[in-house]
Structures are given as C-alpha cells and as structure tokens.
Fold this sequence. Notes:
two-stranded antiparallel ribbon
Amino acid sequence: MAKVHKVMDLQQPGxxxxxxxxxxxxxxxCQSNSSEVLHCPANSIRGTEGAGYKTIAENxxxxxxxxxxxxxxxxxxLDNGNGIEATLQHHKAKxxxxxxxxxxxxxxxRAEKRKSPREDNTDVSKKYTRKSIGQALPATATCFxxxxxxxxDSLHEASTFEMDVRVRQCALKLQDKQLLAKLSAGDLIAxxxxxxxxxxxxxxxxxxEKTPSHDxxxxxxxxxxxxxxxxxxxxxxxxxxxxxxxxxxxxLAILYRTRLLQLGSNVGARVHSTKLKxxxxxxxxxxxxxxxxxxxxxxxxxxxxxALGKAxxxxxxxxxxxxxxxxxxxxxxxxxxxxGFNGSxxxxxxxxxxxxxxxxxxxxxxxxxxxxxQTGNMPQSALSLSQLLMFNSSVRRQDTAxxxxxxxxxxxxxxxxxxxxGVMIHTITRKTSCPWKNGPPTEQK
Length: 445
C-alpha cells in the first residue's frame, strides 16, 4: 500500500511518542505493509535456529551506541525486559531482507569508521611508489608534443587508445624521431601524457598534408562506393509500403565500415557516425534523426504521398545522365592504369589488373548495389568481365577498315584473362600466330 503524504504540524506530537507497540505480524524493523516477502529466522533450515536474531540484535545495539540508529526504530519496543534477542525469539519476529541489509555487519563497520576520530598521521612515514622514487618535488606538467607549460592554454590528458594509435601513425608518417622516442616508453595513457589541443591538431594536419594524393583519391573513391551501397540499401528497405523502417545509426555505421574494409581502405576502430548521419540526411530530405537514449535512429516523416511519389518517379533523361557520368568515371580510371604481362601470373594478378571503380561497377551490375549483397571476395565472373572490358577498351572509336577487320589492343592494357589462353596455345603449337584462322578444328569421328 502506498504511503500517504501529510504535511507535518510542528505543534503536534511526533510519531515516536505515539508508536509504542510492535505489530509482530509485520516487519519488526519498518512496521510497514509491502509486497516484499517476510522471512523468519526461527524457521531457518540451516540448523542454526535463532542465530539471525542474535546477529540483528547485536547490530542494532551497535548502531544505537554510535548514534546512527534511525528514529523510526525504538529499541524499547523490541525489548520486553529479557533483551532484544530473547524478545525477538519469543514472538518469532519476521523482517524483510531489504530491512535486514540496512543493519548488517558491513554497514555497522562503515558507520563506526565514519564516527571514529581521525588519527594524527604526522609521524607516519609517507608511502612511496616506484614512480615517485628519486623525485623530491612533483614535476610541472608540460605538453607531450611541444614540451611547453600550460601557460594560457589548458592541458588535456590522453584517455583513449584510439588517440594513441593515431598519434603513432602520424609519427611514423612524419618520421619524427623525437616523438617516436617518447612513444617507445609506452602508450599515452600509461605515460599520463598531457597535451595542448593546438599541438595535437597541428600534428594531425601535418600528417594529412604528408599523405600521397593517390591514396586520398583511392580512399575517397571507396568512401563514395560504400556510401552508394548504403543509400541503395536504405532505398530498398523504404520501398515496402507495409513497413515503416527505422534505421539505427550504429548498424548503418557497421555496414559502412565493413564495406570499406572489403574495398581495401584503411579505416580506424570506428566510423565517424555523425558525419555519416549528416550525409544520409542530406541525401534523404524526408528523413529525420531522433535520439533514443544513447542511440540515434533515422526514420521517415510519415509522408506516405511523398514516399510513393518518389518510388513511382522515373526520369529517362536523368537516368541517362547518371549512366554517362558513371561511364566517364570508369573510363578515366581505366586509362590511368597501365598493365602488362611480365612473364608470370601471381595470386592477385586479376584484381591488380583492373581499377577498383570498374570492378565495383561490374560487381554491382551482377549482384545489385545493395551493401548486404557485397562480399569481401570478388566473384570470378566480375573479375573476368572487368578484364575483358579493360583489354578491349580504347580512348576513342575509329571507324576505319582496319579497325572493323580487327581490334588493335594496347600492350598497356593486357590483362591476365586474354593473355593466358594465348600462352597456352603457344605452348601446345609453338606458333606465334593463331593456327586456326577459320575457327578451332572440330572433332572427327
């Protein structure tokens, strides 16, 4: 039963003066009606009948001696003259477990420790650790990067392993011997490193400027491919008119990071989910971000008419423009790469002979652009088609008789797939030209 709230009148006598009797059918400590089960120590099956009464009686006396016993509990109503333990055993008193925990031995020891007077420790020798040996005075905190004091800028303490990993990567990229020597002593958290924010930002900017341009182009292309797959996944989920999908940003970030790892990009421990959320909201203006505790979810604004209109839209001109742009991007990357036969085929020769943009486009054509349909191992069908496209590509078409009679292939785009059959035919026939001008011979019966 819920308690009744009442404004207390200072002129009226308190409950401690009127409540003198104990209802032994209730909890003898709180005397309240609640749904919690009552336990009787006299009915213990451990063979120690009444031992619980002795413990609680001693603890109550201890709390009373140090003045920490609540005013709602009067020892006088628990003692009929023979002692608290005997009174409790006589009435077979019951109590709640939660009430008993308030007056256990641990709580009594802590209360006694708080009430005990503080001892004078002036004569006690100071405890030294290995780190403090040989240090007469604590050293002034300095910046880990510039060795300067706090001055006007406050110092921040390193607290994450991701920061330690990134600082080490930047030091290796810049070949900063002084910083590498400091990092060899241990991670930043173990060294209790402190730093200026401007010094850390300057280190990150210097490492970013040192990054080669082709690596940044490669990562940017992979981020675009992964984002396109994520957008396709969301669009397919929203096509169902019977279900209103709700996307958790943590799940979307995991899919995005997994696809980047499949494409070969070097990503950290986690993807910046806030930037990814802003990119998705910019692409889907009819979606909103909502906070659900610590999670962020993306949901539609329930505009069914707008969703159906977007699903039914089909603009042929717009589709043709997108196809032309995709062809220009792939065509540009194909002629940037030069591949030739060096006399042997290694394990990764097929993947390394075609640009990633062409391989990703062919894989999306075969398996769909959904991010869940992509795998870490590229299928052989995508590799074969990509190599044939690379081998038969040309800068521009030439409508001449020689071109119509036969396509001239460039040595800079000789992929393993068309080269391997030629090598096998030469091994069997030992001829430099095709022995079957009118097609391969048929089997004669």
